[in-house]
Design goal:
6-stranded mixed sheet; 10 helices; Beta Polymerase, domain 2; alpha+beta
């Protein structure tokens, strides 16, 4: 089965599930930046009600999680499956939640939610970003552009949080030569600074894989690699990372 036939086959099976109104293709496949071995990120959109047992009943090997099993919040859970020898992730998206976050984003409001595997956490507007850049395979969905109010508000929220992380890394960990804790907070702060940069540019973000390079902050890799478990080294690295991130944010917000 070639890729076109494959994605049509999966989309047809997903849209036929009870209560599913739309199916999308996301990730690198939707943006045409994938590798041959990249997985397939799909999402099912429903309103209020969806039973993961219906997805499980399709018989595809893998693990199907319950609603909210990935920590709750906007991400809402999903499944890790294998279909025709290909890795397929299926995400659950409640249209009631998505429409609420779209209205919030248009008003310049969002929150940062914790999610496994994401250093910065995810913005609640991630589900709006998905509408903006993912490919709708079945059904109909809104296709929003980046809201002006969000572009104005989000950089400050992200940067204020990043600055708190940098400050705590310096005062509570660098000062005591705690290498792992200090570097961990610097990585988290850098990721949030990168979100600030991309929000200022009005660029959607749906994951962190290329976040630093897109924001021009890949040099932080070299700075963190030079860190040593001494207060002097960690103070210096913290100042360097903070300064680099601050410069990138100022450039994005004033340019």
């Amino acid at each position: 089965m070639n890729d076109d036939d494959f994605v049509a086959h999966v989309a047809d099976r997903l849209i036929a599930l009870p209560h599913v109104d739309a199916v999308t293709l996301g990730g690198s496949r939707a943006q045409r930046t994938h590798r041959p071995d990249s997985d397939w990120d799909m999402a099912v959109y429903y309103r209020d009600t969806f039973d993961p047992g219906d997805l499980r009943a399709l018989g595809w090997p893998g693990e199907v999680f319950e609603l909210g099993a990935w920590g709750g919040g906007v991400f809402n859970g999903g499944a890790w499956l294998e279909v025709d020898g290909r890795r397929v992730d299926v995400h659950y998206r409640d249209l009631c939640s998505v429409e609420h976050e779209l209205a919030e984003a248009r008003a310049g409001r969002f929150r940062i939610e914790p999610l496994l595997f994401h250093l910065a956490g995810i913005p609640s507007y991630l589900v709006v970003a998905e509408l903006g850049i993912n490919e709708v395979l079945r059904g109909q969905l809104p296709r929003p552009t980046y809201p002006a109010a969000l572009r104005a508000a989000a950089p400050t929220v992200w940067w204020n949080s990043a600055e708190l992380l940098f400050g705590y890394a310096r005062s509570s960990h660098a000062a005591h030569a705690r290498l792992t804790q200090c570097v961990g907070l610097l990585a988290q702060g850098t990721s949030q600074a990168a979100h600030a940069v991309l929000a200022a540019r009005g660029e959607w973000v749906t994951n962190e894989k290329t976040l630093l390079s897109r924001a021009g902050l890949a040099q932080v890799d070299e700075l963190l690699a030079d860190a040593r478990p001494t207060s002097g080294s960690l103070d210096e690295v913290t100042d360097q990372v903070h300064g680099l991130c601050g410069s990138a944010v100022r450039s994005a917000t004033t340019g």
